[in-house]
Amino acid sequence: MTLTAIVIGYGNELRSDDAIGPRVANLINLWHLSNVQSLAVHQLTPELAANLANVNLAIFVDAMINSKSEDVQVEYLLPTKYNMITGHSANPQSLLALTKSLYGCYPAAWLVTVPGVNFELGDCLSPIAEKGIGIALTKIISIINKV
User: In 3D, which of 58, 86, 81, 60 has the Cα closest to residue 144?
Assistant: First the structure.
């Protein structure tokens, strides 16, 4: 069966609320959805372009630092005009541009950002992050169901 969607949660799991992205990806993985691949990664890397080229939908999940709001944000993404990736890490838009450049296509893509307040060393999430993860999961399943 062909995958229709990929969820990529990224962040540092040793920096408290920065683990929001990987936590969301791991929770989605527990759902065992046959048409969804879920990856928890430390950072976005160029190698992920191969994964993106093989799906119709990509959902990136990250923690939002210094948010003035406690709302989970959902934003539709387009590739940047340039596929410049500095070093070994990328942002979702440059990763989409790289995918387009290498494979001639890219998936529809969304960025889900969840507010976090504690980015100190640790593995516990703040109550705001915990609440945001629940909201993010609801928003993500809604996006996947529209595919």
Answer: 58
The tens place of each residue's pLDDT in the chain, 147 residues long, gives 456 999 999 999 999 999 999 999 999 999 999 999 999 999 999 999 999 999 999 999 999 987 677 799 999 999 987 656 655 557 999 999 999 999 999 999 999 999 999 999 999 999 999 999 999 999 999 999 987
Q: Does the pTM exceed 0.90?
A: yes
Separation of alpha carbons 87 and 96, rounded Å: 16
E runs forming strands in the chain:
5-10, 36-41, 57-64, 73-77, 108-115
Distance CA 86, CA 37 (A): 26
The interaxial angle of helices 20-30 and 127-145, nearest 10 deg, is 50
The encoded tokens of residue 38 equal 């879920």
Distance between CA 106 and CA 60 in Å, rounded?
Answer: 14
